[in-house]
Write a structure and sequence with these properties.
mainly alpha
Length: 134
């Protein structure tokens, strides 16, 4: 059973809050990658419902267009603006967890890790919560 399922808390964004170090340092060679990705999948299934495809896309694009940690830090106010426009408290809470993660990125390697993480989040979100049209 994955760590996420064992420790699944009702708190929105629990995965982000409790896996910041892994998100900031995960590598493709890391032996923890498979369980981490399984936990990410479970997280997106549960908490991804609080974000629309458009919101995820905006956050992804703001993060993905950064080329270093300084630009990543400068993206934080733009992402905070996305949160500020939300009426749903659960959506705000989840975006705030993303902002907290970004605040902990201090190196260019961590910036790259955040980009890889957000790419995976985007893809899982599209799969689990994407447009249901046939």
């Amino acid at each position: 059973m994955s760590d996420y399922k064992k420790n699944n808390k009702e708190e929105i964004g629990w995965f982000l809050k409790n896996n910041q170090e892994k998100i900031l340092t995960i590598s493709l060679k890391d032996e923890e990658l498979i369980p981490f990705m399984n936990d990410l999948e479970d997280f997106v299934k549960k908490d991804g419902k609080y974000l629309s495809n458009g919101q995820v896309r905006v956050i992804f694009e703001l993060i993905n267009e950064t080329t270093n940690v300084q630009e990543l830090q400068l993206a934080r106010p733009k992402i905070a603006f996305v949160a500020a426009k939300q009426i749903n408290n659960s959506t705000r809470e989840l975006i705030n967890k993303f902002l907290d993660l970004l605040a902990h990125a201090q190196t260019n390697e961590q910036q790259k890790s955040v980009k890889r993480f957000m790419t995976s989040f985007l893809h899982y979100h599209k799969f689990f919560h994407g447009d249901k049209k046939q």
